[in-house]
Design brief:
It contains 2 helices and 26 strands. It is mainly β and 369 residues long. The strands form 8 sheets. Strands 2, 3, 4, 7, 19, 24 and 25 form a 7-stranded mixed sheet that branches. It has a 5-stranded antiparallel sheet with strand order 18-10-9-20-21, with no helix packed on it.
Length: 369
């Protein structure tokens, strides 16, 4: 079926309509809507032009080697996503010219505060202490440091007797070893968890980005793929599949109760200014499915909030779905309405459109349907 024709988008948002199989094997039509704001260093907000596109796959980090790259931005493709994920893409900045570390954090002041904090150090290597233990050396002067899982605790390394030793929460990290002496003179992870740093009994990875589908704790929600599943249910998802599998935010940055999108947000240590505070205008969506009779309003909620410190942009994503009928032609359209934007935002949009020579050109299909 032509899903492009179904979307009747009456908002400034990017949209996409896709057909997916849900956990019960039922085909569902999913409408995904994304609103992108530009946010200035002092918290000024304007509508981004063009809007960020809907992503149907994870966008990997640009790292060498590629196998050590995590996801820079998560895929928007899934049929349901409980609560709201919050992500931050960016770098840690030293607070002074010769600083050797900084504490970076992301905080969303919602009904229940969401917060993740970590510590970022300058270059270190593993050394043997006076007591014979393998410890990080004194950090050097810190530079601008990408906040990625490749720079925090983890790894997938050889273990004893031809086995593998793997940090299931972050197999692309560093610092894991069967014998601590194997780490000597090797780089120490620049990013440490505040709750479980490298010198604790059980160090943990730390980051603000999306967790891959095959990492812990996310993989725990995928369900049980055992012999009974292969014989009785495959290729459908296991009966104990949990929709939380689609929620891939770092611990501390997932809200069980959906966010509204206008909560105060504070980012510390991860912008050149050191502190980034803003609050987005409240924006609400209505999805109406035209099935030939009375339009049906589809449930939706804000399920993803991505803060991009590199670009000074914030993406908000909603989705709604309905079972795909046998005759897909029954679905005439899914109309998407949005709440009225503040007058100041609309004035800024009109001014920028007027200044754009090709403002009458049709939008690309990547951004609208």
């Amino acid at each position: 079926m032509d899903t492009w024709r179904i979307i009747d988008n009456r908002t400034p948002c990017a949209t996409r309509c896709v057909v997916v199989h849900d956990r019960h094997g039922q085909e569902r039509l999913v409408a995904i809507v994304k609103l992108t704001w530009n946010v200035s260093p002092i918290g000024g907000v304007s509508l981004a032009m063009p809007q960020s596109p809907i992503r149907l796959a994870d966008v990997p980090e640009e790292l060498d080697p590629p196998e050590r790259a995590g996801a820079r931005s998560p895929s928007d493709l899934c049929e349901e996503k409980p609560g709201t994920d919050v992500f931050f893409v960016g770098q840690a900045y030293p607070p002074a010219a010769k600083a050797t570390w900084v504490q970076a954090s992301v905080r969303v002041q919602a009904h229940q505060e969401l917060r993740q904090a970590l510590k970022v150090y300058g270059p270190r290597v593993w050394r043997v202490s006076a007591l014979g233990a393998v410890k990080p050396s004194t950090p050097g002067v810190m530079g601008v440091t990408p906040i990625t899982y490749a720079r925090t605790f983890g790894g997938d390394v050889p273990g004893p007797d031809d086995t593998r030793l793997r940090e299931e929460r972050n197999p692309i990290g560093i610092g894991l070893a069967a014998d601590p002496m194997e780490l000597l003179n090797q780089p120490v992870p620049e990013i440490e968890s505040l709750q479980a740093p490298l010198d604790s009994r059980a160090p943990a990875p730390a980051g603000f980005g999306p967790i891959a589908s095959h990492w812990q704790p996310r993989v725990n929600h995928a369900g049980t793929f055992d012999a009974a599943w292969r014989q009785q249910r495959a290729p459908l998802r296991p009966e104990d599949f949990d929709p939380r599998f689609h929620s891939c935010a770092s611990p501390g940055l997932w809200s069980e109760a959906p966010l509204r999108g206008d909560e105060p947000i504070e980012v510390l240590g991860a912008t050149p200014e050191g502190r980034w505070i803003f609050r987005l205008p409240l924006y609400q969506l209505c999805f109406l499915a035209d099935l030939g009779a009375e339009p049906v309003e589809l449930d939706n909620h804000l399920d993803t909030l991505l803060i991009d410190g590199h670009e000074g942009r914030v993406e908000l994503t909603w989705r709604a779905s309905l079972p795909l009928p046998r005759k897909s032609e029954i679905i005439r359209s899914i109309r998407i309405y949005g709440s009225e934007l503040p007058a100041a935002v609309m004035a800024d949009v009109i001014e920028r459109v007027d200044r754009t020579p090709d403002s009458t050109a049709p939008p690309s299909q990547e951004n609208t349907a």
